[in-house]
Amino acid sequence: MTSPQSDPAPQPPQPPQGHLHGHTHSHGPAAPVSKHLRKVIAAVVIPFATAVVVGLIAFWPGGVPDHERTGVGFDRQTQDGKVVQVVKVDCADVNAAQVPPTGDTSTPSGREAVNEQEGECAKATVEVTSGDDKGRTFVEVVQPDAPRQLREGQGVVVAYAPDAPRDLQYSVTDVNRKIPMTLLAAIFALAVIAVGRMRGVMALVALAVSFAVLTLFILPAILQGSNPLVVAVIGASAIMLAALYMCHGVTARTSVAVVGTLISLLLIGLLGSLFIGWADLSGNTDDNTGLIHGLYPDIDMSGLLLAGVIIGSLGVLDDVTVTQTSAVWELHQADPRMGWRGLYRAGIRIGRDHIASVVNTLVLAYAGAALPLLLLFSIAQSSVGTVANSELVAEEIVRTLVGSIGLVASVPVTTVLAALVVSADRPGASTSSSTAAAPARTGRGRRRKA
Q1: What is the percent of the chain where pLDDT is above 70?
Q2: Of the given ranges (23-32, 46-55, 217-226, 394-403), which has the lowest mean pLDDT?
Q3: In what order do the strands lie in the sheet with 77-90?
Q4: 268 near 227, Cβ under 8 Å?
Q5: What is the DSSP letter of 65?
Q6: Per-residue pLDDT tens digits for 241-261
Q7: Is the dihedral of CA 108, 110, 116, 120 positive or negative?
Q8: Distance CA 34, CA 41 (A)
Q9: Reported confidence tier of residue 190, pLDDT bands at 50, 70, 90
Q10: CA distance linking residue 91 with residue 262, whole number of Å
């Protein structure tokens, strides 16, 4: 009688167990979490989240401080405009440019002057379509060598200089790209929702929260003179908490990823602060940073550089820590008998593949952003040492290497945290859920037979 009863007993749980694996990966942690372990995790995460909320309240800026506009770069009054007419004219009739007195056209400035005298220019009539001067028109002359040519019916952004003579108050500063950018954003949102479904919706909500924290807290707080490093750490922590818990749920697995991300961010902050100071990087390397320093002299530009390193590394860190935590959780469910050392060894093998691809991605992303600068150094035939020693490139090197070190460190840190947590929770898993208990008893029955 015992044999007929014992033979069927192990068999039925087998398919449900495999079926369970396929669903728990997308809906939450595979292993149930005991009350004791939930308390331990809460004891770490809740004080951290409370500190972030207190920091947000303490450093909340209340808006961007006012300043007198300079009319330089981005610090200009702008309105929308539309090109209503474009006619071709002789450049000599509309330009004041002159060929160099020596007649030397071997230089770029000399060649431009010749083209401006002998070429065919575009004379565009532009209408202001927003603001107090809506309906007003002005003339914009476009050189034949200009990188951006205007066409009839094109939407443009016009800059307004109130102190200039009336005929020179408006000028075209950029093209209006609102429609294609909005359409691209809509396509992106639809693609995320179509593939990710509810997870995709929550990812978009988390993205909106990230932009809100960046634009409503981080940037205004820095402009008001708060320490950029402190503001960046608080803001990045708020973004991390919102993004991870919204996208992956309030679970032990997500909490482990939060702790791993936090430790890695602290490492990036320490290394960044050390090497930015040691390399004497000022953070004031181009026209934009120079304009910021001119408008707000009290801003710590090197601190702003460090804040950028922390925020820029956060997105990739989230991906690494969540992936490693999920991998360890799934490994534990596949073999509940595996101890934390075995889970760590298996998880770190997955992490090594992840490191190789992520670091390469990060380096190429920064290299792509700095490609025009690198091209200029190539044209100048500068040596590698000279290029690396220049502050513009040194900033990108420090940004890339510090971020990469943090990414590399996040893999073993998160993996060992996840292995310790999930293996420590193993005794509670068999008593917290009847669904999980059946496979566990089946496994023990099989070992007795073996």
Answers
A1: 75
A2: 23-32
A3: 137-142, 120-128, 77-90, 155-160, 170-175
A4: no
A5: P
A6: 998 888 888 888 888 899 999
A7: negative
A8: 11
A9: very high
A10: 60
**Residues 364, 366, 367, 371, Cα dihedral to 10°:** 140
Give me 301's structure tokens.
Answer: 């530009």
Instruction: Report the distance separating Cα 172 and Cα 160, nearest Å.
Output: 9
Each residue of 330-340: b (16+ CB within 10 Å) or e? bbbbeebebeb
Q: Which helix (H) or strand (E) holds 72?
A: none
Q: Copy the structure tokens of residue 72.
A: 């330089």
pTM for this prediction: 0.69
Please tell me the predicted confidence (pLDDT) of residue 238. 92
Dist. CA 258–CA 320, nearest whole Å? 11
Query: What does the buried/exposed string (b/e) look like for 305-324 if buried means 16 or more CB atoms within 10 Å of the residue's CB?
Result: bbbbbbbbbbebbbbbbbbb
Residues 6+ apart with CB under 8 A from 374: 367, 387, 393
- Among 369, 368, 357, 371, smallest CA distance to 404 is for 357
> How wide is the angle at C-alpha 151 spanned by C-alphas 148 and 153, nearest 5°?
130
Phi-psi region of 157 (alpha: psi -120 to 50; beta: other; left: phi over 0): beta
Return d(Cα 224, Cα 287) in angstroms, integer. 21
Burial of 296 (0-12, 13-18, 19+ CB in 10 A): middle
Sign of CA dihedral 418, 420, 423, 429: negative
